[in-house]
Amino acid sequence: MSRSFGRSDLANGAHRDVAIWLLACCFMVAVMVLLGGLTRLTHSGLSMVEWEPIVGIVPPLNEADWQLFFAKYKQTPEYLKVNAGMSLADFKGIFWLEYIHRVWGRLIGMVFGLPLLWLAFSGRIGKAMIPRLVGVFLLGAAQGGMGWFMVKSGLVDNPAVSHFRLTAHLALAFLIHAWMFWLALDILADHRPSPRRLHGEAGGTMSWLAGLTILVVITLLFGGLVAGLKAGLIYNTWPLMDGAIVPRDLFPEGFISLFEDIKTVQFGHRTLAEVTIVVALVGWFRARARLGAQTPAAIHAVGIMALVQVGLGIGTLVMVVPVSLASAHQMGAMALLTLCLWAIHDLRRRI
After folding, report:
1. Can you name the residues that pair with 244 across neighbouring β-strands?
2. Among 32, 131, 240, 300, which residue's Cβ finds the most Cβ atoms within 10 Å?
3. Burial (CB count <10 Å: 0-12, 13-18, 19+), residue 34
């Protein structure tokens, strides 16, 4: 991550406004992830069969428009193999969610891009910040392309998107959110008094947080694979899977099974989640023992959110992926990653 930039990188005291703008964009990306999850869980993502970044913002306005959109959908593998005979009313139900998802993405681009131009040309952000913000914008543009690249994979033969492309799409969203959040923390921290420094074993706590964050990222990436393969719809028991702690018939195709085989992918995700919660709780209790009353609030938040997230994951599995719980579990992953970043940023200012 980037270092905090100095006061000389900012101008005219606008730093707080820039941080608030970035945090607002973080919130919008979080909503985008929620909409994307709902789109996937309700099987709405393949209802729009074209990618038109400009004119695509206009929805069907009359019956003729609806019939045209529906006719295009009827040519897709999803309609032919899954939804044959679907009524126009049912099509409208899946269309609107995907439409809102796409329009929200365009809105994020505007809310980020237009203020960025104004801030840059008005001199209200320093030169050191501009390349970082441009990098975020370019990632956002790439995310739009990745979204269509993902959808396109489900419009050919198999009415399901590539689980690799879905995971890449999810990972980009998390990366954009994390980068903006870190930059906002940099801005806010640079104009606050330095907090009280910690002594003793704070360095060990930092190592724990860094390792935990890596585990969280790997686990959520496997969550993307699970979602793409619909692997959460089988073996809906915990802690046993297929009647055993380590089920039989894992890795039927060797190492590649970890990314392709439904059973092995689910086992990988749930095992990573179990390791993550153990690391989170052990590190949390050790941090409290090391730092005592000086333990930053962010570290407590990480420990609590880890418990909430594992509970959401188990609930999603044993209840066979209800939309509400699955959506909450996905957002829990974003919340946990965000809190890990906050804790790292806060702790490094204290040691």
Report:
1. 241
2. 32
3. middle
CA dist 225 → 116, 158, 162, 168, 315 (Å): 34, 17, 9, 10, 19
Domain ranges of the chain: 1-192, 198-351
Residue (of 180, 257, 231, 208) closest to 22 by Cα position:
180
What pLDDT band is residue 294 in, cutting at 50, 70 and 90?
A: confident
pTM, rounded to two decimals: 0.91
Cβ neighbourhood burial of 63 (10 Å; 0-12, 13-18, 19+): exposed
Sort 327 into a burial class: Cβ within 10 Å, 0-12 / 13-18 / 19+: buried
Cis-peptide, bond into residue 53, ω within 30° of zero: no
62: tokens are 């009359």
Alpha carbons within 13 angstroms on the beta-carbon side of residue 151 total 23
Q: Return the H-helix or E-strand segment holding 72.
A: helix 63-73
3-state helix vs strand vs coil in the chain, percent to 5? 70, 0, 25
Determine the length of the chain.
351
User: Vertex 22, ends 20 and 23: CA angle to 5°?
Assistant: 65
